[in-house]
Amino acid sequence: MGLRTSAREAPANLQVKAGEIPGLLLGIMLCLTIAVVAAGIQNIQESSLGHPYIEAIVLAILIGLGLRSAWQPSPRFHAGIAFSAKQLLEVAVALLGASLSFGAILASGPALLAGIVAIVILANAASYGLCRAFGLPARMALLVACGNAICGNSAIAAVAPVIGADSKDVAAAIAFTAVLGVLLVLGLPLFIPLVGLSQNQYGVLAGLTVYAVPQVLAATVPVGLIATQVGTLVKLVRVLMLGPVVVVLSLIAPLLPPEGATAQGRPTHLSFFRLVPWFILGFMTLAGLRSLGLIPDGAAGPLKQVASYLTVVSMAALGLGVDVRALARVGGRVTAAVTASLVVLIAISLALIYALGSA
C-alpha cells in the first residue's frame, strides 16, 4: 500500500484537471451508489423494525469492505474513491462545526482538556515502550506510537519525515492503521452496553481512541448527537497535540540511530498549515460563527444533514480503500504491537472517563 497524501495537503488536491474529471466522477458514483444502497437498507429497517439496528454510515463501510474483498476496483475508479474518502469527508467534518458551540468546550471543563493532553502523552510513551518490547526499531515504534495516540495515518505521515523514517516502515504502519481504524469504528459501540457508558462518556471514549477525525463521525453518529459533538470536540483537541509532538520529535530526531538506506530527509521547516489540517480550521471557524449566533438554527440543521450525507458516501469509499488482507502483509510484530497499543489506549481512556465521572 502506498503512502496517502496527508490531510494538510487537501486544498491543493481539490484542483482537478479537466481530463481527470470523468475518472473522478466514476469513483464518486461508485461510492454514491453504495451510500444509496446503505441508506435504503436503513430505511427498510426503520419501516419494518421501527429502528435502524445498523445505521447507513456503518452499512456503507461494510458494503465497501465486502465489495473490495471480492473485487479490485480498476485504476479508473481510484481518483474518485480517494476523493470521496478524503476531501468529501473533510468537508463533512468542517460542516459539522456549524452544529457545535464553543459553549460545549467551556462546559467540558479544564479537567477533561488536561486529561486529553495527559492521555496523548501516556499513550505515546506506553505505545513506544510496547513497540520496543516487541522488537520494533526506534523509528517504527515512534510511528506506531504517534499514529495510535494522536490521529492515525495523518500523524504517521507528519512524523515520518521529521524522524527520517524508512518508507517501508511508514507503509506498514499506515496499512495496519487503515484496517484497524475501520475495525475500531465498527466495534467501539459495543463498549456502551459492556461498561454502561452514557452518550457523553461514549463521545469522550471515541474522541480519545478513534484514529481519524472523520472516523469519529462514523463511530458516534449512530449513537446520538451528544456523542457526536463530544467525540468531535475531544478528537479535535487530541489532533491539535500533533503540533507539539512533532516539534519535540524534531528536536530528538538527531539522537536516533540511522535505520536503513531509504530513510526520508527531515523537513527544512515546520509551518502551521502542515501541522493543522484545513478542515479543522473550517470546523473551528463554523463553530465560532455558531457560538456568535451568526449561524441560525435554521441553517445549522441543513448543514448537519449535508455533513451526514457526505459522511455516508465517504464511509463507502473508506471501505473500498481498505484491503483486509493487508493485515497478513505487515508482519506479526507490527500487528501485535499496534493491537496492544490500542488496547492500552482504550484502557487508559476508560480510566480517565471514570476518574472524571462524566454523566
UniProtKB/TrEMBL annotation:
Subcellular location: Cell membrane
Membrane topology classification: Multi-pass membrane protein
Superkingdom of the source species: Bacteria
One Pfam family recorded for the sequence: Cons_hypoth698
InterPro entries found in the cross-reference section: UPF0324_pro
GO cellular component: plasma membrane
Organism: Methylobacterium durans
Major subcellular location class: membrane
Keywords: Cell membrane, Membrane, Transmembrane, Transmembrane helix
Similarity comment text for this entry: Belongs to the UPF0324 family.
Transmembrane portions of the chain: 21-44, 50-67, 88-106, 112-130, 142-164, 170-192, 204-230, 236-256, 276-295, 307-327, 334-356
Protein name per the record: Putative sulfate exporter family transporter
